[in-house]
């Protein structure tokens, strides 16, 4: 039986990439959003969980350790070990954190505390720096455990169910504006 903390992630950006791809929620296509302004690269496989909605109007993000990069659009089972609490330009923008469930090199990682500190520092540092040349600030409020991460995931699934029709109609920006007026999802 699948463990509840193993969830499918859709890879958007392979580890090592400086191209920021994302899945378009209306067309389903993988689109180049931008090339990172600085000489930075993603320190893990980066993607999202389908049928979720975070406060930035996008599906919940995931960053996962991997040994060998995959490809945009690939579905990977990730063992969630925690989450990184992030505020991106004033918006709550949490990242789930995990490891490839089907890579035995990570079999001993069952909690984010099992992960070498330097690997976590690299990820934290990446997110703090990757928008610097766009004059945007990202604040990291710290790492939380698997329990909190799964709670966040459940909330994002619920939110998606509430808004899915409107998201498919391309109303993301309107929804975000409504949240802003209500003070929802703001840091
Ligand atoms: Mg996001």
TrEMBL record:
One of its GO terms (biological process) is phosphate-containing compound metabolic process. InterPro entries: Pyrophosphatase, Pyrophosphatase_sf. Its cofactor is Mg(2+). Its main location: cytoplasm. It is found in: Cytoplasm. Its EC number is 3.6.1.1. Mg(2+) 1 binds at residues 56, 61, 93. Pfam families: Pyrophosphatase. Transmembrane segments: none annotated. Keywords: Coiled coil, Cytoplasm, Hydrolase, Magnesium, Metal-binding. The keyword Coiled coil applies. SUPFAM superfamilies: Inorganic pyrophosphatase (SSF50324). Substrate binds at residues 20, 34, 46, 130. Mg(2+) 2 binds at residue 61. CDD domains: pyrophosphatase. One of its GO terms (cellular component) is cytoplasm. Residues 146-173 form a coiled coil. It comes from the Bacteria. GO terms for molecular function: inorganic diphosphate phosphatase activity; magnesium ion binding. It catalyses: diphosphate + H2O = 2 phosphate + H(+). Homohexamer. Catalyzes the hydrolysis of inorganic pyrophosphate (PPi) forming two phosphate ions. Belongs to the PPase family. This is Inorganic pyrophosphatase. The gene is ppa.
